[in-house]
Structures are given as structure tokens and as C-alpha cells.
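Worked example 3. Consider a protein that binds zinc ion.
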Amino acid sequence: MKCSKCLEKSIVFRRDSNTHLCESHFVDAFEETVKHTIEDNNMIVEGDRIAVALSGGKDSTALIYVLNKILSKRKNISVFAITIDEGIKGYREDTIKSARNISEKLGIDHIIVSFKERFGLDLDEMIEARREAPCTFCGVFRKSLLNMTAKELGATKVATGHDLDDEAQSIMMNYLKGDIERLGRFAPRRLQPGLIPRVKPLKDIPERETALYCMVHGFYLKMAECPYASLSFRSDVRDMLNYLENNFPGTKKSTISGFSRISNLLADRYPPMRLSSCEQCKEPCVENSCKACQLLGKIDSSRLIASSRSQS
Ligand SMILES: [Zn+2]
Ligand SMILES: [Zn+2]
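Given these inputs, the predicted complex is written out as C-alpha cells:
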């Protein structure tokens, strides 16, 4: 099959626009989409210092590559990378190595911070201590550590690699759980004290295109999935949406566009919460202590119970 724009061989078919694209036209289209997303949503402005959450997987690798390319000519905007090491044996080591490689290749400052250093336990240990869904823990601690680190390093924005598939999944998960309040707060809102604003420049790019973008730039990421991923609700929602998208193309986009139409209505019903700062760690939170500190407290108490049982 030939590219719809030139005579080269096509490497991707975009079903929504009914176009076949060769490698160079795909790269152009990908980068144009990201530029539009950034501009239309006013995601990045002069003077920004952007912390890219770089897991080392395909989404964040594509993100740092494209941001570096788009922003390299803008003198007043800087980009650096933060990698969070959650401590997941047999999985994290490889992704950290990839994160380090891409940062070095692009000449971007790269900081690695770990759950163990900051919270005293890594994810594997947290899960041992408390039988809860690993992704609940991981999400809370990752978010908190990312915000703290970005703040300490003077970032004005945190950019994450969430793509169109992730967005559709998050929206659908909230619908399916009936969590309309959370759904209402999913859209980006006004600035909150102590929280570095998050931006998602890849939110209009389908997951398979982030993988392809990495591949054409020589970052072929043949990586294992997180060993805990299959235990999450998200992974079932992802399979369901992929099935629907296959049979009914456009399902993911319509999930997102439908949400953006109701999110304005929900904004009045669920205004942004007033945040205070956590009594223990000073991170912004809704109650007196943040979710990370609450979970750490629960882990501590269940460890105490476990150790007193083993002594008696
Ligand atoms: Zn072409
Ligand atoms: Zn806290």
C-alpha cells in the first residue's frame, strides 16, 4: 500500500481520516497533532520548566522525544526528566535503563527517585504488608512523589505520557464504577496551591502510534508489561475498548468527545475541592493528611499486627 501523500510505502493506516502514511508523513502528522494539542489547550507557555514523567515505556519515551524536538528551538522553555522507581522486581530495571538511555541520547537532565528512599518501602513490600490492589498504592505514591520531586526541582509543569487510549479508559472506568464525581473532576481545572499543573501532550494520539513513533526513531521497546497490570480493572476496560474499537472504529474518540460535552455540566456540580496541606508531608490534600500518608499509616499498622502475631 502506498502513502496517500507521496509514493512511498505506507506504514500506518489512519482509519478516522482514511489515510495511509509513509514513515516521514507519519512522523509529520504525529508531531503536528502534538503541537496542536499543546497550542489548543495552552499547555506550555514561555518560561515553563517542564518535568517529563519518564517511565521508560513507549508513551513517555515518545513524549520526551517529541517535546524535545518541538521545544528545542524555544529558548525560554526547558525540559528535564523524572523517573520514579516504584521497586517492582523483574520489571523496573529494564525501563529505568531505557529511560536513562533516551535522556542521555537527547542530552536531557534525568533524575531517578524511588519509593524506597522517600517512603521507606518499595511497592513489592507495600503489597506484601497490605492486601490491596497494587495499582491503588502505586498510583497514589507515584503521583505524590512526582509532584514533590517536580516542585523541589523548580518545575512549572509536569508532562505525562497519557495517550488517547489512556484517556478513554479513565473516562470509561469512572462511568462503569458510577463515580460521576471523579469523572467531573477528571478534566483539567484551575491552578491549585502546591500542585504542579499536569499536562498530557499525547492525549490525542492513539497508543499504537506512540509505539510506532518510538520504533521509527530506533527506540524499539520490547518490554514486559508491569506484572501487576493484569490485576487491575483498567486492563479489562482496555481490552473491552480495544475490542469495541476494532468492531466499531471511532469508539475511543467518541468516548472522549462525549465526555468533554458533559464535563462542562459536571463542572458546576463538582467544583474543584479546596486543598489544604498534609500535616505529615505538607503535600496538598483534601483532608488533614494526604492519601500517601494515610496508606503509609495503614501499612505500618498492619505490619505491627503481623509482627505481634508472629511474636506471640
Ligand atoms: Zn508519504
Ligand atoms: Zn502526606
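Take a moment to read the result before moving on. The longest strand covers residues 78-85. Residues 133 and 231 are 7 Å apart (CA to CA).
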